[in-house]
Amino acid sequence: MRKYLFIAYPVWLYVIFSVPTLLVSALFYSKFSDLLIINSAGALAMVLIHLCGKRKKMTQLPAMPWKRVFLTTGIMLVPVAALTASLTGKAFLNADLVTYLINCFWSFFWISCCEELLFREFLIFRMRKVNIPGWLTVLLPALLFSLCHRPESVSLLVQRFFLGALLGYLFLKRGDISLNVAVHWVFNIVIYTFQFTLQEVTALYSAPRAGLNVLLCLLSLLGIVVAYSINKSKFARYT
Fold first, then answer.
1. How many separate domains does the chain show?
2. Cα separation of 125 and 203, whole Å?
3. What CA–CA distance (Å, rounded) separates 6 from 10?
4. Where are the alpha helices (DSSP H) in 28-65?
5. Cβ distance 224 to 71 under 8 Å?
6. How far apart are CA 108 and CA 229, in angstroms?
7. What is the distance between the alpha carbons of residues 168 and 136, in angstroms, rounded to a whole number?
8. Residue 34 sits in which domain range?
9. What does the pLDDT look like over 82-120, one tens digit per residue?
């Protein structure tokens, strides 16, 4: 039984850091109406502890490919930014761009790194070492990933479980943490942009326009992932 205790490690980190994060959120809610910045501080702490602790001891893993993370993310963001600017660009004219950019390029970076390092790379790598079936190495981390988000409803639990399963499958097949972090990071930016600009987009354009933008952005993200998977060697020249 002891050899399976590692499964609790990501949950343990989340519990340890969720208490002070929630406390800080409560204290500074009046100053920071968008709490993603505060939550990202907890994610940053978990990433640093994991990189300097558990991951450093996992000598079979390569060094963290930071350059590839940023360049892959940049390639994925090009069509997303172009589509958003052409379809819903006017919605940003009166938006709080400082908060938006901080969350897109700081908060979601650390949140994506944290969740991919813990729930995909660490758990899947360790579960495969003890010969846990492939389907369970995808579904169990996805369930833990969803539960650690403290879902407010069953629908959110299912949505995050589904996202976690897709990301788990991607890592199981490709084994590339940089690809996982980039996909997760850009996905969060797309969904956040939709929520952040929905009211303005609806007023200036229409609600279907906002939905179309999300759909096209996600399809462009999927297209890049497929292209990367089919011919990683050529794609890698740019990353």
1. 1
2. 47
3. 8
4. 36-52, 54-57
5. no
6. 24
7. 10
8. 2-236
9. 999 999 999 999 888 998 999 999 999 999 999 999 999
